Structure formats: C-alpha cells, structure tokens
Amino acid sequence: MPKAIKSQGVVIYYSTVGSPESYAAIGNVTGWSGPGGSAAIIDATNLDSVAKEKLIGLPDEGQFTINLNYDPDNAAHIALRAARKAGTLVAFKITLTDATATNIVFSGYVTGFQLKGQVNEKVTADLTIEIDGAVSEV
Fold first, then answer.
1. CATH code, residues 11-137
2. Assuming Cys at both sites, which of 13, 61, 81, 126 could form a disulfide with 23, CB separation 3.0 to 4.6 Å?
3. What is the pLDDT along the chain (138 residues), one digit of tens a residue?
4. What is the pTM of this model?
5. DSSP state of 21
6. 87 DSSP assignment
C-alpha cells in the first residue's frame, strides 16, 4: 500500500514575529504551494580546470502561496492584508496530517494579496509570501 498523507486537514497558522510566538489558524484555505526554493551556483572554474567547477551558494527558500475563500471579516485575512501593506515579517507554521503532525515553520513577508472574482462564483484570494531565512521541520 502506498504511503501518503492527505491534504484535507492540513492547517496553516500565522503569527506576528515575537517572543513568545502565538499562532492563529488562517481560515478558509483552499490550497497552498511551497515552501520551495533553490540555491545559487558559484562558478569556481580556473585556468587549471579541465571542466567546470562549482560550489553551492546559500539556499533561497523561495515563496509560499496560499489560496483561500476570502472573508473580509476573518481576523487572519485582515491581519495578513495589513502585514502586506506594512511590510511586516510574519511567522508561519504548516501542520501536516501525518501521524506525528509534522510542523513546517518559517518567516516571510506577505508580498501579494490578490482578490479574484467572476460571474456566479465566490470571491477568492491568492497570498504570496516571500520566505525570509531558513525553513524548519519540527
């Protein structure tokens, strides 16, 4: 039997960065993507090289996106829109549905909060978070 975990039941939390952090769930999440990133490649080739020589640079954890059904009265939606406007660093935690409830934690800046709508549909929003620093799995 293949081993997999369900997306249904994953909870994404946010917190203002501080001590101690106090996380609150982000409501109405319909999807998410990330964290993900890459590292720079540093060319270390010299005149004695017989082929390209490379070093790995610092990792860039990239972006995290959240899709949600927008609720203008939801405290998390209000706080994350305000964080985007103010440029505030926000802590995030993703709790997965595996047996040990793995948590993925990181901080980032909300760089986008785009509302979307169309005929005969609900209003949705896409959040873009630029990850700052390392991502940890605890």
1. 2.30.110.20
2. 13
3. 668 889 999 999 999 666 677 899 999 999 999 998 899 999 999 999 999 999 999 999 999 999 999 999 999 999 999 999 999 999 999 999 999 999 999 999 999 999 999 999 999 999 999 999 999 998
4. 0.87
5. -
6. T
